[in-house]
Amino acid sequence: MTRLIDPFQRTIRYLRVSVTDRCNYRCFYCMPTQGVQWEAREEFLTFEELTRVIRLFTELGVDKVRLTGGEPLVRRGILQFVRQLSALPGLEDLSMSTNAHLLSDQAAALRAAGVRRVNISLDSLDPAVFRRITRNGDLRSVLAGIDAALAAGMEPVKINMVVMRGLNDGEIEAMFDYAVSRGADLRYIETMPVGEAGIDGTGHFMPAVEILARLKRHAGAELVPAKGGKGAGPARYYQVGEGPVRVGVISALSRHFCDDCNRVRLTAKGDLVLCLGQEDRVSLRDGLRQGLDDEAMKELIRAAIARKPRSHDFNEDRQRVALRHMSSLGG
Ligand code: SAM
Ligand code: SF4
Asked: Which ligand is nearest to the CA of 69?
């Protein structure tokens, strides 16, 4: 079996694909209100180009793909694209990260087309706070989107809450109760020193240990590390007492996940980003548009993987990554 192995003997099986840098929301930690430098649409890989790149990755051993953005559901033709991806023989796990604003109408069709699970951003259950964070978001649409994903049989539905001191940290407990009521998994995320949050110096930063302590008090139960709770991703998962819901905490500044990192990211314009916390990237679009054949493209991908760094450098130099917007990297 073909495998993509980096210089630190990590097998790369997971590709996160940003299909657009556009978004219908303007979460303050992710995007500025105005003056976003959008990429021109012709800069984006077409769905045909994306499908080809993803096929090449699957032929090299990647079996897990997550579609993200920006907001993936704002790109026209996404459903048809999902159908094409689902037809790739090597692709076992196709998922999506979305703000769920447009999900209520599309969840069933996306599930039928092959999206098995979704991660949904939800930072507040209070309409005013939700609006303040997303700037123009509509909480009702998002909650309807979550219910539609559950009704469509997406499994699991994971809710991602970026916890920000002074803004939504009062809702750590309410969000847990909401997730339990829906049977959804929940992940609390520390703000990361990228995008707008990086620019404002992460003034709202709240460490994972504090979030967990609050949850433990609220639930009145021990947080037991979940079986398989330390996967290749950045989240650590816990069972709360005997409860059914798994709770994860993503501590961006911790390096515990770098040793097991199995992922790379593709931006909407076709740059392969080897690590979220490093600048190094390789343009696959240039190769595609120069007419490289499949073997030459695979060589380009292998050479890029050979440049994957051992770990991110958030701790040493937050500023280096601060100006890069999360919306172009897809989280
Ligand atoms: N629009 C989709 C969404 O919001 O889920 C997908 C893209 S979004 C960039 C992916 C994730 O990145 C979201 O969960 C968002 O909360 C998170 N994110 C963006 N900027 C962040 C930051 N500075 N710190 C922590 N998480 C961030
Ligand atoms: Fe859009 Fe997601 Fe960024 Fe919010 S976090 S602005 S929903 S891309």
From this structure: 1
The CATH number that applies at residue 215 is 3.20.20.70
Q: Which domain holds residue 192?
A: 4-328
Ligand 1 mean position to 30 CA, how many Å? 7
Structure tokens at 154: 């997406």
- What is the enclosing helix (H) or strand (E) of 260? none
Q: Which residues of the chain have pLDDT under 50?
A: 199-201, 316-323
Residue 190 identity = E
| Tally of domains within the chain | 1
| DSSP output for 23-47 | -S---TTTS-SS---PPPGGGSPPH
Determine the Cα–Cα distance for residues 309 and 258; give it in Å rounded to an integer: 9
Name which residue sits closest to atom 8 of ligand 2, judged by CA.
70
| Binding site membership of 330 for ligand 2 (Cβ less than 6 Å) | no
Of ligand 1's listed atoms, the one at least distance from the Cα of 198 is 23
Predicted pLDDT at 78: 98
Q: What is the pLDDT of residue 7?
A: 93
Please give the number of the atom of ligand 1 that sits closest to the Cα of 202: 23
The DSSP annotation for 31-88 comes to S-SS---PPPGGGSPPHHHHHHHHHHHHHTT--EEEEESS-GGGSTTHHHHHHHHHT-
- 217: buried, middle or exposed (CB in 10 Å: 19+, 13-18, 0-12)? exposed
Q: Report which ligand 2 atom has the smallest distance to the Cα of 26.
A: 6
Distance (Å) from CA 326 to ligand 1 centroid = 7
CA dist 246 and 2 (Å) reads 33
Q: Is 98 in the pocket of ligand 1 (CB under 6 A)?
A: yes
pTM, two decimal places: 0.92
CB 322 within 8 A of CB 198: yes
4 Cα to the center of ligand 2, angstroms = 30
